[in-house]
Design goal:
Largest interface: A-B, 22 and 24 residues
Shape of chain B: globular
Radius of gyration of chain A: 19 Å
Largest sheet of chain A: 5 strands, parallel
Number of strands of chain B: 7
CATH superfamily of the largest domain in chain A: Aspartate/ornithine carbamoyltransferase
Helix content of chain A: 25-40%
Oligomer: heterodimer
CATH class of chain B: Alpha Beta
Number of helices of chain B: 4
Strand order of the largest sheet of chain A: 7-6-5-8-9
Largest sheet of chain B: 5 strands, parallel
CATH topology of chain B: Rossmann fold
């Protein structure tokens, strides 16, 4: 089957998922992001690459950080950005997604950044857009959040120098997490030898073993000797029914505290995609501590999103 | 018809001699990636004084981006000094259409407002498409359109080749 994300020449056409993207493509995105890193420190925090392009942030589901960093990234590339919070707009009046997209295309859109509660929404839009339009998935249901996965890889590479010889633990609500899926996919593709998933059985999706990860139900064991610990947000708003006894009980078992962190390598880094539930999946002492790289992740997210947009605008369309 | 290419090392010597008495002490030397950065490094070594050295990758400023896309190997630009009010010597290996120099100047102004920019190139091959001329030049050659002069670096030794 043809990968809808790549052109026949192997260039990036859309970014919908990290599944199936070759390691060379992931590395090219990370390298390009590296060269965007200093733009935020110049007098003029802009490059003219996407001057005259119109980028639409289509958010069918609320988000602050992701939408804002996409917006900043687009503006640093000199694109014009329009933010649409569709949850509160024409969708509630009954317009279909494709009608929304057709209308925005008529306004000469060049790129759509799509966040949607339904898995597959970005793929669906990508299948129906005009040939010159690129689509970036900014999170669809439980499926994927590729730019988050990429910025996490960028963070790991910056702090650890690469991916060889690393032991990485992804801890928490994997079941509801599109972020975890994108991370596991990228870690595996980039050659991390040991990817661990640490979670209670009730928060693991069926078949998770087939992703090539090592499963741990006990956090103390799961993060032992790890180089990187990625905490996931406990998705309260997605929690249907009683999967957990209580947030307090969850913190005791799976919350990252200084005592638990001491079992990882002394130079281990702690990551979190945000927004954090302090005192639920992570203790403030760790979140604000010297091993936390949670705020650098946000900064790197801008450079990574600039790289993806620049590569799409330059090679995807036409 | 083949054009005889001069020796790149001789051109560096000639260019350094032309530039030597003309640079204020605080002038920074900025090379355009890749060949221009080599020439800038060699010029700085040949000149006395310690002029700050910078490097530009102009991929994000090219005027043909929407036609050919992003170069697959973009390097970060490094400008480790204040550009504001400083004289700059912009260095490239080959001056052809002038579009690279224009892009480089656009990028430099995003770091600040330099007091002056002068242009030094190893070779001016003609074929300019913009009103951009070098202030210092190693050699002027007439290279037919369709051919490219390329600067190479083997173990620190520079040489020129036609492609």
């Amino acid at each position: 089957m043809v990968d809808p994300q790549l052109t026949p020449q192997g260039k990036l056409r859309h970014l919908l998922t990290l599944d199936g993207l070759p390691a060379a493509m992931l590395r090219q995105i990370l390298d390009t992001a590296e060269s965007f890193m200093d733009v935020g420190e110049r007098d003029v925090k802009k490059v003219p690459l996407l001057r005259g392009k119109s980028i639409f942030n289509l958010f069918f589901e609320p988000s602050t950080r992701t939408r804002t960093t996409f917006e900043i990234a687009a503006k640093r590339l000199s694109a014009d950005v329009v933010n649409l919070n569709i949850a509160t707009s024409s969708q509630t009046k009954g317009e279909t997604i494709l009608d929304t997209v057709a209308n925005l295309t008529a306004m000469h859109a060049d790129m759509f950044i799509v966040r949607h509660g339904q898995s597959g929404a970005a793929h669906f839009i990508a299948r129906h857009v005009a040939p010159h339009i690129s689509v970036i998935n900014a999170g669809d249901g439980r499926h994927a959040h590729p730019t988050q996965g990429l910025l996490d890889m960028f963070t790991i590479r910056r702090y650890k120098g690469g991916f060889q010889n690393l032991r990485v633990a992804v801890v928490g609500d994997v079941l509801h997490s599109r972020v975890a899926r994108s991370q596991i996919s990228a870690l595996t593709t980039l050659g991390v030898p040991e990817v661990r998933v640490v979670a209670p059985k009730t928060l693991l999706p069926p078949g998770v073993e087939q992703l090539g990860v090592h499963l741990f139900y006990d956090m103390r064991e799961g993060i032992r000797d790890c180089d990187v610990i990625i905490m996931l947000r406990l998705q309260n708003e997605r929690m249907k029914g009683a999967r957990l006894p209580s947030a307090h009980e969850y913190f005791k078992q799976y919350g990252l505290t200084a005592a638990k962190l001491a079992r990882a390598k002394p130079d281990a880094i702690v990551m979190h995609p945000g927004p954090m539930n302090r005192g639920v999946e992570i203790d403030s002492e760790v979140a604000d501590g010297p091993q936390s790289v949670i705020l650098p992740q946000v900064t790197y997210g801008i450079a990574v999103r600039m790289a993806v947009m620049a590569m799409l605008a330059g090679g995807g369309g036409d | 018809m083949l054009v005889a290419l001069p020796d790149a090392e001789d051109l560096i010597t000639r260019l350094a001699a032309a530039v030597r008495s003309q640079l204020a002490a605080d002038t920074a030397i900025v090379g355009i990636h890749t060949g221009g950065a080599w020439v800038a490094q060699r010029l700085r070594d040949a000149l006395s004084g310690d002029h700050p050295l910078g490097e530009l990758d102009i991929s994000f400023y090219r005027d043909d981006f929407s036609r050919i896309g992003l170069h697959p190997q973009v390097k970060p630009s490094r400008i480790p000094f204040t550009v504001e009010d400083r004289p700059l010597l912009l260095v490239d290996d080959v001056l052809y259409t002038g579009r690279t120099v224009r892009a480089a100047m656009n990028e430099l102004f995003d770091y600040g407002r330099p007091s002056q920019i002068r242009l030094a190139v190893l070779i001016d091959r003609g074929g300019h498409e913009l009103p951009i001329r070098p202030d210092f030049v190693g050699a002027t050659l007439a290279i037919p359109p369709g051919q490219n002069v390329e600067l190479r670096c083997d173990d620190g030794r520079l040489s020129l080749a036609l492609k």
